Write a sequence for this structure.
């Protein structure tokens, strides 16, 4: 079956441009996460959706970052007025809720979008 | 808050050598613990996990034991192969929740033939 897909895989933006990054989760997965991975670092949480509801956006670094998942499937991460410090790999992950008390379901990651702001 | 501290790399080993990558964590309660692997040019993949104290996760010859008393989850493999060359990330999710992962900074492993 298809895994998590992300597009584009690579994006070069001039400083000040707006960008939109797309994530297609695994079909039927309720939860969707966005992470930012700077070069040589571990991924850092940005935001989390359960179906179409954005339940946690505490990791978004500024109000230039906006994410949506209007129909509970595909998600878009938008960055307005990009800055050089936004250069990173943006990872999307999806998962399906576990059963009962076994809240240890796996997050499946996409290949990421590498954003370079020049 | 929650945090994960990993042994700094890079780590370079000869094929068939023994591998240990240290990982310690800070979290309240009983988090779930994970090791993810990122092969060159590929996305993050779950390698193994453990959800309660003294659990041992294992996969592909790798093992890690959830040690509550030392808040550790060290990754080990008895005999590494060239194909194990990758970046390894230790991570946790908080107890009672399967929400966002908190990752360590990653350890680059290179295995030489």
């Amino acid at each position: 079956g298809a895994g998590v897909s992300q597009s584009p895989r690579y994006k070069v933006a001039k400083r000040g441009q707006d960008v939109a990054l797309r994530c297609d989760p695994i079909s039927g997965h309720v939860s969707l996460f966005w992470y930012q991975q700077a070069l040589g670092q571990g991924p850092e949480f940005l935001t989390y959706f359960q179906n179409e509801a954005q339940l946690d956006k505490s990791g978004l670094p500024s109000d230039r970052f906006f994410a949506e998942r209007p129909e509970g499937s595909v998600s878009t991460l938008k960055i307005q007025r990009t800055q050089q410090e936004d250069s990173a790999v943006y990872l999307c992950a999806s998962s399906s809720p576990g059963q009962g008390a076994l809240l240890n379901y796996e997050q499946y990651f996409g290949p990421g979008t590498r954003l370079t702001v020049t | 808050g929650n945090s994960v501290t990993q042994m700094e790399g890079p780590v370079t080993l000869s094929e068939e050598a023994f591998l240990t990558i240290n990982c310690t964590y800070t979290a309240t309660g009983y988090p779930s613990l994970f090791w993810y692997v990122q092969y060159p040019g590929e996305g993050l993949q779950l390698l193994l996990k453990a959800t309660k104290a003294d659990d041992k996760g294992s996969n592909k010859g790798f093992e890690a034991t959830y040690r509550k008393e030392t808040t550790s989850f060290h990754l080990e493999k008895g005999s590494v192969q060239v194909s194990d060359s990758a970046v390894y990330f230790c991570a946790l999710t908080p107890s009672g929740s399967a929400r966002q992962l908190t990752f360590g900074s990653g350890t680059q492993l290179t295995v030489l033939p």
